[in-house]
Design brief:
With about 100 residues, the chain is an alpha+beta fold. The protein has a single domain, classed as Hypothetical Protein, Haloacid Dehalogenase-like Hydrolase, Chain: A, domain 2 (2-Layer Sandwich), CATH 3.30.1240. The chain is about 25% helix and about 25% strand. It is built from 2 helices and 4 strands, in the order H-E-E-H-E-E. Helix 1 crosses helix 2. The two termini are about 25 Å apart.
Amino acid sequence: MSADRYLPAARYVAWAISGILVERGLKPLISRVVLTETQQGDAWLFAVLEVSASDHPEEYTAPDLVQALTAALQGLPLVVSETYGMRYAVLLGSQNQAWRRGMI
């Protein structure tokens, strides 16, 4: 499996996340972007943020920001994780496309 087919979408998603953060008055603290594909064929983009306490981390997980990110990403599933650092995970593609039809 190769996640290369998702590179254009991954570039757009990383650009959109940075843009929304700036638009909201937040620093685009993305330290790296990781694109990976699972054995089941799910393609995930992880935007890893370097957010310190002085950056007000709660602002990066605020429900209205997450909603704005999801809207900007045209409904792609977005998960915020604060375990072992902060990151946004975006599902770019899946073998199980039921989530696109609102079944999941």
